Amino acid sequence: MFESSSFVHLNVRSFFSMKDGAFSPEDLALRAAELGMPAVALTDRDGLYGAARFADACRRVGVKPILGATLTDRTPRGDRRVVLLAKDAAGYGNLCHLITTAHMTGERGDPALTAGQVCERAEGQVCLLGPESGPGRLAASGRLDEAVAALGPWRDAFGPDLFLEVQHRLEPDSSTEIRRLIQVAERAGVQAVATNAVRYLVPQDAFLADVLECMRELVPLAAHHVSRRNAEGFLKPSAAMRALFAGRRDVCDGTLDIAERCEFDIGLGRIHFPQFPTPPGRSAGSVLAERCWRGMGDRGMKPTREVRDRLDHELAQIQTMGYAAYFLTVADICADIRAMGIRTACRGSAAGSLVCYLTRISDVDPIRHGLLFERFINPLRDELPDVDIDVESARRKEVYDAILSRHGDDRCACVTMVDTYRARGAIREVGKALGLPEGEVDLAAKAFPHIGAHHVREAMSKLPELDGLNLDAGQLDLLFRVVERLNGFPRHLALHPSGVVLSGHDLPDRVPVERSFEGYRMVQADKDDVELLGLLKLDVLGVRMLSAMHHALDEIARTEGEKIDLDDVPVDDPKTFDLIQASDTLGCFQIESPGQRELLQKFQPTEWSDLITDISLFRPGPVKSDMVTPFLNRRHGVEREAYPHPSLKPALEESHGVVVYHEQVMKVLQAVAGYDLSECDRIRRHLADEIEVEAIEPDFLRRAAAQGVPDRIAREIWHDILQFASFGFCKAHAAAFAVPTYQSAWLKAHYPAHFLAGVLTHEPGMYPRRLILQDARRHGIPILPLDVNRSEPEYTVEPVGGVEGDGASHGIRLGLKDVHGISDGEIDSILRARS
To answer: pTM for the whole thing?
Structure first.
C-alpha cells in the first residue's frame, strides 16, 4: 500500500514522444525518486520506445514503473488521445499489439487507431480519457449529454478500469473544465482521476518544451503558436498536486489505486530464446550436439582428446545457459545464405567458438589458433551473446528478406536505431523554431564540425566564422543554450544497420513493431533496449569486399571456365605471401592502407596466422602504446624475448612475449593467478575501471602467491596487464578478418584483372577508382574504354592476348554505370537494343 499523502503521475511523455516531451525516461525515474514518489507512469505517444530503459532506471532508484502509451484515436472530426496503462502481461501484450496495428496499418509516421480497435483489446489495461479524448473534449465544451453517451462504448469495454482525467493547469478555464468533467464522470458511473499532462520535469524547462512544440509543428515561437499558457506542466510534487485538488481528495487517491492495479513486470534480464523445431522427443541441445559431431567429420577434424573436451565444455555451457536454439537458428540462417549463392563470414568473438566452427557459422578453427570460448560466452558475462555475420553488401537486402520471411512476423524483426541530435541539425531546427533569420542560422550550422549538440559552446571559441554572423550575442546564447539541451534527444528513428531480433512466438507481446523507411518491420527498441528486454539478435553486416570477391569469381568462371572455391584455396600459397610481403595490397581487405602496407614491409608475414597478428597490431591502441616496435624487434631477432615468469611463455610465445590479444590477457591471468577462464574474462573487461582494479589487484596478488609466483614478479605482471589490456584486440575477431584478407590477397596474386574488376565495381576500400585503375595499369593490365556494344553495367574482364596466365592477358572493360548521370533505365535500354 502507498502512503495516503502520496500521488502518482499517470500521464507523462518523455522525449520519445518526438518533441512532445523534454526529458529522458531515465531522468523521469530519477526525478520521481527525488520527489519521494512511490510510482510513476511513462505514456509516450504511439510507442513504447523508452519502456525498457525506463523500467531499468526505476528499478535502480526504487520507484515502481507503470508502462503505458498515449494512442491516437482517429475520428472523422479529428485525432483524439487515449492513455492506456498495462496492468498485467496480457494488458502489456494488448498494448504492444495496438501500437503495432497503429503503425503498420496507417501511413508511416502517422499511426492511428479507431476507438473500436482500442476497445477490442481492452483486457488487462487501464484506460484514461482526458481533455484530449473525444468524451473529454465534449465535456470541456459543455456538451455534457454527448460526453456521457460517448463514454458508453469505453465503459462497456474497460469497465471499472476506465477513468476520466481531470487536469488543473491553473488557467482561467481550468476550474470550469474540471467541474464539467467530474459531472460527466459521476453521471456515467466512471471515476475521475487527477493528472498533470507532464511534458517537462521542472518549471524552468517549460521554454524548452515550447521550442520543441514549435519544432514539431514547424512554426516559429510566438505566443499564439504555443498550446501551453504557463509553466505548470511539470512533474509536480505530491503535496502540490493534492493542494490543487484539495476539495476532491478522491481524484488524487485514484492515482494510488491505479498504480496498485498495475502490477506488470517487463522482466528485465529474462532471456527470450528463439524457438527451433526439433524432432519429437529431441531437445535443441541434443540436435546441436549431433550437428557438431557431424560437422567434425565434414571439416576433416580429428576427434582428439583436446577437441572432444573442448566441444563437451562448449555444449555444456550453451545448454546450461539455454542458447542451443539460438545457435541452431543462426547456423540455419548461414546455411540459407550460402544456398542463395551469397558469400558470408563470421566476425567477432563468436569465431572463438568450436560450436560455431563445426556448425559452419564461422570458418576459423579455434583449436588451431588458440581462441577461447569464454571470450564469447561464459556465465559471468553480463552481456547477451550475439553473432555477427558479414554478407555481400550488394545482396544484403536479399539476406534480410530471407531471414524475415523464414522466421515470420511473430518471431523476427529488425532492430531500431535512435538517431539523436547533432550540433548542425539541432542549430537549424532550433533556429527555425526561435524565428531567427534562416540564412544566419544556416551559416552558424555550417560553421560547426560534425559534433554532438553538447559540444557547441566548447567549439564556439575555436570558430572564427561565428564572428561574421549578424545574430547578436543574446540570440546566439539563447540558440546554443537550447541546442545543448537537445543532446541525446531522439531526432528520428531509423533501421539499425545490421541488427535482427530472433525470438520465440511471443515477440508481438514483448515489443511493438513499426515500419522503417525501407519497409522493414522494426521493433521499438534499439540495440541496448533489445538486450535489456532479453531478446537475442543476429547482426548482419554488408561487406563490399565479399561482393567484390564474388564478382571476381564470377568473372573468372565466365572468362576462364574455372569455378574456384575460395574457402578451399591453400593457405600457404607462396605467390600470395610474395604479394603481401611486397605490400602490393591495394584493394585487399584490411591490409591496403598506407600504414598497413608499411607494417607489412616491416613484418614480412610468412604464414596465415601472421595475418591475425598483423591485423591486431594495426589498431590505434597498439600503435599508440608502441607495442609494434618490441614485437617486430623480437620477431626479427633484434631484441631477445622476455617473460617475467616461465608460466607466461605458453600464453605469449606466439607473439614473442608481447601481449597483443584479449585472449592472452585471459591466459596470463589464468597462468599466474589460477583463475578459471570465465573469471579471467570478467577481470579483463573491468581493467579500465579504476575502482574495479583496486578491488581486483589484492586478490590477484594473493592468488599469484598461492601459485608460487614471487610478489615482485606478480606486481610486475599486474602492471604489464594493466598497461596492455586496454590496447589489446580480440584474437577471434582478427582471425575471422584474416580469412577474407588472405582470400582477397590470393585473388589479386593469381587473378589481378578479375580481382580489380570486382574492386572497381563494388569499391570496398578506401581508395577512389582512379587509384585502383592506376594500380591495374602498374600491373600491366590494360583499361579498355567504354563501348556501347561491349560494356556491361559493371566492370568486366576481357582477353587481350599475351602470355597465358599472365595478368596482361586480360584487360578491364569500363562499365556503363561509370557514365556520369546515366540511369538504370537507360542502361537497360542499351542492353535490350544490343541483344
So the answer is: 0.91
